[in-house]
Amino acid sequence: MSISTIVISEDNTTVELLKLYLEEFEKFSFLAGTSDFSKAYDAVKELAKALIIVDISEYQEQGLNFVSKITAEFPDCRVVALSDKPDVDLVIRAMRVGACDFLAMPLIKKNFFEILDKIFNDITDAKPKKSKCRVISVYSNKGGVGKTSIATNLALELAKITKENVALIDLNFQLGDVTTFLDLKPSFNISYMLQNLDKINEDFLLSTLEKYKDTSLYVLADPPYFKQVDDILSKNITKLFEILRDTFSYVIVDTSGGFEGKAMTALENSDLVFFVTIVNLPALRNCQRCLELFEKLGFAEDKIQILINRYMENDEINVEDVEEVLGRKLYWKIPNNYFSMMSAINKGIPVSEVNADSNVALSYKNLALMVSDSVFRQKLQG
After folding, report:
1. How buried is 69 (Cβ within 10 angstroms: 0-12 exposed, 13-18 middle, 19+ buried)?
2. pLDDT in tens, 108-125
3. Is the pLDDT score of 14 beyond 50?
4. Could you tell me how far CA 253 lies from the centroid of its own chain?
5. How far, in Å, CA of 293 to CA of 282, rounded?
6. CA nearest neighbour of 157 among 216, 222, 220
7. CA gap 142, 374 in Å, rounded
8. How far apart, in whole angstroms, are the C-alpha atoms of residue 283 and residue 288?
9. Model pTM?
């Protein structure tokens, strides 16, 4: 669908520039450019829906009267006023008589396109689709804290509980272990996906991502060769996340550690970040420093949630101590169960398949319930 657009201006250069921008944007078609308000009015009468751009630089009062007349008589048309003298009073007057937006000259293309996008959605009632997907990244800037175990077990439990499609993405480009933890040998990896973003759609994802047994969990593996990592750009990761949101209800990301660009891109594109730590003083001090950094980067406090792994109830550092040191409440604690977890890792299966009644398996199940319940409530509120 293309919206017919009429430009009214005394300046031919302005008309030609707007014509070029409209052609580039594509959702609007340039119908006519004129300096005659009467001719413009007659043209609008023949259109069901239209965009009228009125330059009020030269004839302010006549232009404002025209804006008022068009918006009063043609409710399916939208008017944008523009001027090379955009003082505050003029902008307010234009909006009061019915202009849906105001452009200052010289025109800035980016601002113009943003206005066009908003108007197109308004006229066509094509409101942007709000994704119901939630992207959850599991992160730590220290190795050996069980990040991959948490990502794989949480993803599987979410798939089992919700019966919805869940993607597990291995973004640990150097030392990814997701496929080892689930004993999978995938045909495709994230490097291939990122090089073929223009070909990816829902059917492609569901047919090429490795499905875990008879569940609704789909796994996207890390690149098998280090040299493939160099070709991966942060902007492509952002685009991949956008595509995944259209197909999956949950995307669980096992991120790389540290603060390099790709890891930060994953966190920026996540709705929730589980910051994984263990209970010892060096780990907690490290966690504290990271939280300060995330705050400086502008991450919302409720986006970063602390998850304690291998927690022991009788440890000399208890939950209250941890919360006091970090200055915030813990989101979850996963109990220490060395034998169940090592058995699962060595067999390449989730811990629930080793012993579904173990404390650690039940903890993952309840964590998934907590995550899915909070998402369900967000959907209701949204």
Report:
1. middle
2. 888 899 889 888 888 876
3. yes
4. 13
5. 17
6. 216
7. 28
8. 9
9. 0.64
Structure tokens at 380: 């209701």
Confidence tier at 139 by pLDDT (50, 70, 90): very high
Superfamily per CATH, domain 3-124: Response regulator (3.40.50.2300)
Domain limits of the chain? Answer: 3-124, 134-381
Does residue 228 surpass a pLDDT of 60?
no
Q: State the pLDDT confidence band at 380, using cuts at 50, 70 and 90.
A: very low
User: What is the pLDDT, as a whole number, of residue 61?
Assistant: 93
Instruction: Return the CATH fold of 134-381.
Output: Rossmann fold (3.40.50)
Tell me, letter by letter, the H, E, C secondary structure of the chain.
CCEEEEEECCCHHHHHHHHHHHHHHCCEEEEEEECCHHHHHHHHHCCCCEEEEEECCCCHHHHHHHHHHHHHHCCCEEEEEEECCCCHHHHHHHHHCCCCEEEECCCCHHHHHHHHHHHHHHHHCCCCCCCCCEEEEEECCCCCCCHHHHHHHHHHHHHHHHCCCEEEEEECCCCCCHHHHCCCCCCCEHHHHHHCHHHCCHHHHHHHCEECCCCCEEEEECCCCHHHHHHCCHHHHHHHHHHHHHHCCEEEEEECCCCCHHHHHHHHCCCEEEEEECCCHHHHHHHHHHHHHHHHCCCCHHHEEEEEEEECCCCCCCHHHHHHHHCCCCCEEEECCHHHHHHHHHHCCCHHHCCCCCHHHHHHHHHHHHHHHHHHHHHHHC
128 band by pLDDT with thresholds 50, 70 and 90: very low
Q: Read off the tokens for 257.
A: 């550690």
349: alpha, beta or left? (left if phi > 0; alpha if psi -120 to 50): beta
* Identical fold, 3-124 and 134-381: yes
Answer whether 208's CB lies under 8 Å from 169's CB: no
- Residues pairing with 32 in the sheet: 6
Determine how many CB atoms are found less than 10 A away from the CB of residue 197.
12
Burial label for 101, CB within 10 Å (0-12, 13-18, 19+), is buried
Q: What is the pLDDT of residue 1?
A: 63
User: Any idea which residue has 């263990």 for tokens?
Assistant: 278
Question: Positive or negative, the Cα torsion across 24, 27, 31, 33?
Answer: negative
- State the chain's mean pLDDT as an integer: 87
Six-digit token pair at 28?
Answer: 């609007």
